[in-house]
Amino acid sequence: MSAALRLTDLTVSYDRHPAVHHVSAEIPAAEMTAIVGPNGAGKSTLLKALLGLAPHIEGRIECSAKRIAYLPQQAEIDRSFPISVFDTVLLGRWSRFGGFGAARTADIDDAQHAIEAVGLAGFERRPIDTLSVGQFQRVLFARLLLQDADLVLLDEPFAAIDSKTVADLMAVIRRWRAEKRTVVAVLHDLDQVRRDFPNALLLARELVDSGPTQRVLSAENLLRARAMAEAWDEHADACDVPLRLSA
Amino acid sequence: MFYEYLIQPFVEFGFMRRALVASLALAVGGSAIGVFLILRRMSLMGDALAHALLPGAALGFLLGGLSLPAMSLGGFLAGIATALLSGVIARFSSMREDASFAAAYLTAMAMGVLIVSLRGSAVDLMNILFGAILAVDDMALFLVVATATLTLVGLAAIYRPLVVECFNPGFLAAIGIRGSLYHYLFLALAVLNMVAGFQALGTLMALGIVLLPAVAASFWAREVWSMTLVAAPMAFASAAIGLLVSFHAGLPSGPVIVLFASAFFVGSLLLGSRASVRMRLSRPVHLRG
């Protein structure tokens, strides 16, 4: 099994405090991996680091994916902005037309199909401020579909979303897996992770465990994760764990 | 009667014709800028930016007297400096950008008034603060029209990245596009429009014709481009009506124009087709689905 992502001794810090601390792990290609951990465990930070958006990164990230698609938490998007569903979805093809080119007929057809695939046919001209949270998440999934990425990063895709929408969107995620795309999702619902995600990475600033979900989400590991996340020292000394960057 | 009140002032007086053309240009360019200012939730920052032109214009005044090129260039440089400086401060400290804008413009305002008072009289100060659209000469007209042209072409060129940077900056970042570049290009265009507006309406009210029609348009239109299309005619109408009323009633033109723009805002707030008072009160029958 080849790795889509290989993290070597990755530390990401805000204001010198590490949010992700000395994490080494592999994320398998063409597989679904869940990132799990308590609030403040560095899950979103880890995704941002993979995208190169985190402020201060030490260690190494090796990524074999050519194109990465990213679903942010909804709070990062201005949902009152006057833009239509169709235009939002079509942005997924940015890599084709860039900031200035025109969209081709094929892109427009694909956008239409993506909107239908997430169950939003008929919503094309609706402004996004008229959508519910679940409908808007479907819009963002349609945009991801259009991005045609080999690595898809999802940050809490199912927060505050009803079970019908979760089921529909999980079908989209399984389709990505069938198409040999790598999916990495930050999730909180452990039952869902056990059910749908064969692979997991348990994070509590430091790596607790990563690998097959059944092993990673053991009661013992979850307890350890909780204890680790609660330890926070305002006046911590400089970290002296040596960097293991020999490879 | 109709001719006498509405047409004759423009036929008879060159300064009225120039003022009309200047306000048309200001309306077209400025209202597009205004739409983006409110969508970026930067209305008050735009106001701060307009005030920040003052020390630059005042320095121009100190060096060149009441000369338009000197004051405009000074104002433009001061505006850009303020925008960049507060952007940099916000990025390198935990201070929010609106707070650093406020700090920058209060400083700028105080410096500006002080510089004018070093040399000018109270009349000069009034001129800079409140503008004089009836004193627009050919040079100023050229500046205003060139600004409107540059604004429309520039906004058309950066339209898509700017829209995405407004509503989903993380998306641009994730696909490796520097959204801040477009943010600063937009700010430069905004400053340019304030400079153009300040000759006509002064630093205190230049933003009136930029912002009020855009806010009014948000009660009618629900996409960025249609908001711009609605805002521009309202801006021009307030300028034209304002000019005529101030001409006949012998009132200062700047405030009258801005007040008519406010009238459009209040009217849209009450009667508009989206989220207006009318829609709130009328409770139309709900639809089937």
Can you describe what's shown?
The complex is a heterodimer of chains A (247) and B (289). Chain A has 247 residues and is an alpha/beta fold. Chain A contains nine helices and nine strands. In chain A, the strands form two sheets. In chain A, strands 5-6-7-3-8-9 form a six-stranded mixed sheet, sandwiched between helices. A three-stranded antiparallel sheet of chain A has the order 2-1-4, covered by helices on one side. Chain A has helices at residues 43-51, 85-90, 94-97, 105-117, 133-147, 163-178, 190-196, 213-216, 219-230, and strands at 3-14, 17-28, 32-36, 57-63, 68-71, 151-155, 182-186, 199-204, 206-212. The mean pLDDT of chain A is 86. Chain B has one domain (2-278): ABC transporter involved in vitamin B12 uptake, BtuC, CATH 1.10.3470.10. Helix content of chain B is 83%, strand content 0%. Chain B has 13 helices and no strands. Chain B is globular, with a radius of gyration of 20 Å.
Main CATH class of chain B = Mainly Alpha
User: What's the total number of strands of chain A?
Assistant: 9
Morphology of chain A = globular
CATH superfamily of the domain at 1-66 and 151-157 and 189-238 in chain A: P-loop containing nucleotide triphosphate hydrolases
| CATH H-level superfamily title of chain B | ABC transporter involved in vitamin B12 uptake, BtuC
The assembly state of the depicted protein chains is heterodimer
Could you describe the largest sheet of chain A, including whether it forms a barrel? 6 strands, mixed
Summarize the structure.
The complex is a heterodimer of chains A (about 250) and B (about 290). Chain A has helices spanning about 45-50, 85-90, 95, 105-115, 135-145, 165-180, 190-195, 215, 220-230; strands spanning about 5-15, 15-30, 30-35, 55-65, 70, 150-155, 180-185, 200-205, 205-210. With about 250 residues, chain A is of the alpha/beta class.
Notable characteristics:
heterodimer; A: 247 residues; alpha/beta; 3-stranded antiparallel beta sheet; 9 strands; 26% strand; B: 289 residues; mainly alpha; globular
